[in-house]
Amino acid sequence: MDFGKILDQWNKQSGGEPLPRGPAEYIRGASDKDKESEEHPASRKRRLLRKSPDGTIDLHGLTRDEAWDALDIFFNDAKNRGLEKLLIIHGKGNHTLEQGVLTKTVRNFIERCPLAGESGHSSASRGGTGSTWVIVKRQGPSPA
């Protein structure tokens, strides 16, 4: 006996209203939103790694504190606008004896920012070690 016949028989016996015909709707009570396929995390990661950045910020000329504040605003704005990949231009720090202040600041910010996901240095055409790309983490539904 197929699923449709089982439902018909149940409806006759119970005198109830017909149940949805699709198994997913019957079992899960699926809405149209549930039916929309979510992008698999691995597919999303591959797509984002190939993708050009949605937003860019240039931190040249800023102090460490100014850069931190600018990054905080930049990431929150990116989340609100639904951006997925960001490019941070911080320079290579060639004018200092050690690693550049902005390079360290960006790395430190990314490690602490809950919106910052995977990151890495850009290709040479996008600044090489003088810039960093960051994937913006997806935010789950906010609690009701």
Describe this entry's structure for a reader:
The chain starts with a helix and ends in an 8-residue tail after the last strand. The chain has 6 helices and 4 strands. The protein is elongated and about 85 Å long. With 144 residues, the chain is α+β, with helices and mostly antiparallel strands. α5 crosses α6. The chain folds into 2 domains: 33 residues, no CATH class; 96 residues, Ribosomal Protein S8, Chain: A, domain 1, CATH 3.30.1370.110. About 12% of the residues have low confidence.
Q: How does the SSE layout of this entry go?
A:
Layout: H1 3-14, H2 23-28, H3 32-35, H4 41-50, E1 55-58, H5 64-81, E2 85-89, H6 101-112, E3 116-121, E4 131-136
The largest sheet, given as strand count, sense and whether it forms a barrel, is:
4 strands, mixed
CATH architecture of the largest domain: 2-Layer Sandwich
Radius of gyration using CA atoms only:
25 Å
Strand order of the largest sheet: 1-2-4-3
CATH class of the largest domain: Alpha Beta
The low-confidence parts are 19-36
User: Outline, from the CA principal axes?
Assistant: elongated
What is the domain tally? Answer: 2
Strand content: 5-15%
Look at the structure and give the mean pLDDT.
Answer: 78
Classify the secondary structure makeup into a structural class: alpha+beta
Instruction: Report the helical percentage.
Output: 40-55%
At the fold tier of CATH, the topology name of the largest domain is: Ribosomal Protein S8, Chain: A, domain 1
The number of helical runs is: 6
Distance between the termini: 43 Å
* Topology pattern, helix = H, strand = E: HHHHEHEHEE
Number of DSSP E strands: 4
